[in-house]
Design brief:
The structure is a single chain. With 109 residues, the chain is of the alpha/beta class. It folds into 2 domains: 50 residues, no CATH class; 56 residues, no CATH class. Helix content is 40%, strand content 13%. The strands form 2 sheets. The protein has a two-stranded parallel ribbon. The protein has a two-stranded parallel sheet with strand order 3-4. Strand 1, helix 1 and strand 2 form a beta-alpha-beta unit. Helix 2 packs across helix 4 and helix 3 packs across helix 4.
Length: 109
């Protein structure tokens, strides 16, 4: 089995000659800079894009659908995500309706 050996020439950055793709949208600049400092060429191509919740028309449509047919079970994977959803719904004037629909079933967090 071949074991990796330490870089014999500290003058050569450890990622020199490598191209690294940063697919994150959040903190992408910070991550890219860190890789560049280690010698990598960095390409940025976010795999996901961040849309302000209040501007997310798909979320609005899904929220209205959920209100129309309240779920038996709602799973909230993050508190901040759930709060953001409720805040967006408040901005659309349907926050109380969303909470009532979710509250009609079981909420798992």
């Amino acid at each position: 089995m071949n074991r990796p050996t330490p870089n014999p020439s500290p003058a050569v950055p450890p990622l020199a000659g490598f191209t690294v793709g940063v697919t994150a949208a959040r903190r992408a600049e910070e991550l890219g800079t860190m890789m560049e400092r280690r010698g990598a060429a960095v390409l940025h191509g976010p795999a996901l894009r961040i849309v302000a919740l209040a501007d997310d028309t798909d979320l609005l449509a899904a929220t209205r659908g959920l209100i129309a047919r309240p779920p038996d079970i709602t799973v909230a994977t993050t508190g901040i995500g759930f709060r953001g959803w409720v805040e967006a719904a408040d901005g659309w004037g349907i926050g109380e309706d969303l909470l009532a629909a979710v509250g009609a079933g079981k909420l798992i967090a």
